[in-house]
């Protein structure tokens, strides 16, 4: 099974330069940080996505960590790039299909991009909880 | 960058002598005749070559050449042994005992027999990955006709108690089949003394060609099977079909070399295995799968906790290894062998099988270990699980239910 060029490029990139690809962690208790985690180790993939919102509730910065196969990690990096500068409502519009298409994922790897979409949903939920407090 | 092959348990390259010899049995200048042709020297010469190969195969396992039936590989040998025994002895009973860690070439024929009304008991190995005689003793019944247990597990390299299980089966007059695809040239096999009725053999796991194998069928006490392939009565009626002379000659030569190099091969993989294990032990949260005391050293199966296996393989770039991770399988299921050990599923997802052979060098191992240690650290830096572990979260107790997608 060969990987697409884009998946290989991103996977290699994030391994050699994690900072550039927004690998990391924000303090989850920060009121301006929304956290979404999806998956389970027993299923073979877990993604933790964190968004830092500015005063206008736009996504100012993003951090993530992903346990999973190369396609899951590559999907995560792409998702993270697409989120920056967006409002929560705009972020909600990003679909796993868009990522799968951009990365040229084969059908058996489509679920890897679903992981990312689920994480943003979880993060939005976390944000809604925080902002209603 | 140089590619490093550490997947010898999957297949081995042909020994150059094997490949060279095989080429002599294909063209008009060579011995291309049909070994079944009794009416001319073309056939006789091919038949002579088959006889030699049959003797070489028998010699490696301490058998009589008349006990060797050539097949297209170990998968066909497993099918022939299991279905052939089941069909021959079904009036005596319809119960078969096997294990959860067998190769699919044993498990799938068993599933097929279940459709024909046979009942199969699938034994769980102990936590070392081993099937013992006591487990078999507990599972057999009045109507048990066959026990099928592998010699060496292909994912873990663990050795089952073949002698103990065999004694029990001989005592109870139950047919005992052993899939020895991973065992030839790795452990001593002497069927003159080892109580086994049927044994499946593969050529390509032992530096022979793909597409050929054999089934050993004991003569005393005689094991009987029903043929699965009909059309000419070749191989004493056990397996019809024109014998592929070049393939069989290749298998014979590969087995001859395996016997000649037995001690050398064993010592070589031992050094490689111990070196890699020593290097990998430097890393935190690494687990050896399968008992070190009951395994062969050409296979080393390790789980790197908090890292998914396929991503590790991808990061290893120039090193060819395999994984029990779901992502490397067509079914998206993690290794059933590792799951059968009773360990957490994540350790199956995180497992890598390294297997070594004649062309593997210490430099290969050192280079692999250097890369491995580097990428394990990098991938853990990416892993939210590693983060949680570092933060002191009790990973065994953590409830993932609300995070599942």
Characterize the structure shown.
The complex is a heterodimer of chains A (133) and B (405). By secondary structure, chain A is α+β, with helices and mostly antiparallel strands. Chain A has five helices and three strands. Chain A has helices at residues 5-16, 70-83, 88-92, 96-103, 110-131; strands at residues 33-40, 45-53, 59-67. A three-stranded antiparallel beta sheet of chain A has the order 1-2-3. In chain A, helix 1 (5-16) packs across helix 2, helix 2 packs across helix 5 and helix 4 packs antiparallel against helix 5. Chain A is globular. The model of chain A has no long low-confidence stretch (mean pLDDT 90). In chain B, helix 1 packs antiparallel against helix 7 and helix 3 runs parallel beside helix 4 (104-115). Helix content of chain B is 38%, strand content 13%. By secondary structure, chain B is α/β, with parallel strands linked by helices. The two termini of chain B are 39 Å apart. In chain B, the strands form three sheets. Chain B has a seven-stranded mixed beta sheet, with helices on both faces. In chain B, helix 6 (162-172) links the parallel strand 5 (144-148) and strand 6 (175-179). Chain B has 13 helices and 13 strands. The mean pLDDT of chain B is 95. In chain B, 52% of the residues are buried. Chains A and B meet through helix 1, strand 1, strand 2, strand 3 and helix 2 of A and helix 9, helix 11, helix 12 and helix 13 of B.
Which secondary structure elements does this structure contain, and how are they paired or packed?
The complex is a heterodimer of chains A (133) and B (405).
Chain A: H1 5-16, E1 33-40, E2 45-53, E3 59-67, H2 70-83, H3 88-92, H4 96-103, H5 110-131
Antiparallel strand pairs in A: 1-2, 2-3
Helix pairs in contact in A: 1-2, 2-5, 4-5
Chain B: E1 4-5, H1 16-23, H2 41-61, E2 68-71, H3 74-89, E3 95-99, H4 104-115, E4 119-123, H5 133-139, E5 144-148, H6 162-172, E6 175-179, E7 198-202, E8 213-217, H7 245-260, H8 262-280, E9 286-288, E10 299-304, H9 309-315, E11 319-320, E12 322-323, H10 336-340, H11 345-349, E13 351-355, H12 362-381, H13 384-390
